Protein: Hemoglobin/transferrin/lactoferrin receptor protein
Organism: Dyadobacter psychrophilus
Amino acid sequence: MLSSTLSGFAQERDSLRTELLNQVNVTANRAQNKTLETAGSVSVISARTLQTYQPRTTPEALMGSTGVFVQKTTHGAGSLFLRGLTGNQTLMLIDGIRLNNSTFRYGPNQYLNTVDPFTIDKIEVLRGGGSVTYGSDALGGTLQLFTSNPAFSEKPAVHGKAVARYATGDMEKTLRAGVELSRSRVAFSAGVSIRNFGDLIGGDTTGKQSPSGYKDRSFDAKLLFALSDSWTLTLAHQAISQKHVPLYYRYKLENFALNEFNPQKRSLTYFKLNGKTTSKWASEISLTGSWQSTNEGRLSRKKGSSSLRTETDKVQTSGVIFNVQSNIAKFWNASSGIEIYSDQVESDKIDQVDGAGPVASRGLYPDDSKYLNYAVYSLHQLKIDDWRFSFGGRFNGFRIKVADEVLGNVSVKPTALVGNASISYLLHNHSNFYTSFHSGFRAPNIDDMGTLGIVDFRYELPAYDLKPETSYNFEAGYKFRSEGFAMSAALFQNNLRNLITRVQVAGQKIDGIDVYRKENVERAYIRGAEIDLEYVFSEYWKIYGSGAYNFGKNITKNEPVRRIPPLNGRFGLEYRRSQWYLRPEAWFAQKQTRLAAGDAGDNRIPKGGTPGWAVMNVMAGFEVKHFAVNAVAQNLTNKDYRTHGSGINGVGRSLWLTLTGKF
């Protein structure tokens, strides 16, 4: 729920201050660290920022965030790029639990869109790291979503909240209702979201992009028990169901009469036991058990065809995380633990021709595949005068079993050993010069190994001899913060090895489509720069801006890395006084003409590359004790634009209006 968002907004509304580098993050080291003192590039999107932007979806909450580029394959999707990488090469977490599973696809995907933005209290983005801390997939970085917690109260209390949102052109009609009950030892919250998204209306000459609308229903609940003064138990559940989510570009460009996700479902249930002890070796202990389920259905029919194809992929994931915080000495603390995740994959495909019975066949993945992911890790931080030293390591093992009807039973057991290290020099508690190294990996998953069928515009065959992809990320940066000014700047280079890529099988076609198989054959690097600035120049006014540049080269093919975002960023001005705020903001991206061969052949990218663009948005809001109104006017100049690699254009001139009542 957004109850903590509204309370946080009320507490901070009287005057402006620099938010940049003023937050605490836990994603970098599994322990609370001031963002200023963290030896790495971390962005924190606070509850107040989420209240200001009123994002339609969780991916759109990240648009404009420093170093994050959001690609939208369709209106009901959204895949973030961290330092030029996306899909299963970036890691996503919810309350410390992996969202990534063993069928996450290479390239952009829609999974982040299955998180209800009304449940989020804070977002942390760690760019360029995370494999040592959280495991496979963090080649480009790690995104962590923290959901809202109900608060304990000395006396029994009941609070409620209702939200209604409408967008011009019927692009959104949303209702959200939530309740929070609290006592001194027990706190409970629950909420329901009903969201109907109409077809997205683009700018200028684009007009309505149909079909692109869909329906979304979600439910969440969280229960906290204070077992004692030192121990807390959290029980949580969240579920979301999306129906008839069209892949717009397939209708527009690929001669489909029907192509949609139906359904697109995800649920997560977990318990988390947290406690503190008097032992320096186990000052804090956390045990988490989770059960997560995803259900992706795909319906497709070509124009003029009488055949309807129904594909279903289900993944059941159970997980256990045991973490121990240690205060070994006054200058030395550590975070160590074990993680275990187990996936079971069900996959099927049914073709139904008008007037004939259904014909079942192998799904996209081998049915009843199993994927075990286990790890042990230890992270350490040393504080010596003005110096900070961090280092850590992780051993990760996997046991992957598939029963392929073509290749028979296959079992593989890849492993990975990764480490990181950093050095920071803090000057007068307002400057941080740092350098860091992170090694990372992405273990081959069921999508890499077991895919059989049409993916995008290729036909894929299974591959069972794959090794983990690896990365070696070097970064140097500087952070500065005073009462009225803050900045963060970083230079990085990420060297990528054993990249898994689709290799065409010479001379083979299936149904007239080229045949590919994945292999570890490529090397690449991505280098770039990021900057973030914020200046409060009066009690009520501030200006801010950020930018990110990525340059990627595929060494093996002597061409650009696929889908590299262009130079992009934002800048804006904010006025905030008493109950009011006004925030005009511009987003921009330069043209991207550095294309890999795969980009040039991608029908979502215009011939010659994606044009540059700049759009102007304005956020405004007003809040009193029991009521708040927020308005977001997007793309004031009605610009036609598309983020690089997307399958649908951005929204045109439009207004989103949100009304919130609470008691």
Notes: Residues 1-14 have pLDDT under 50 and may be disordered.
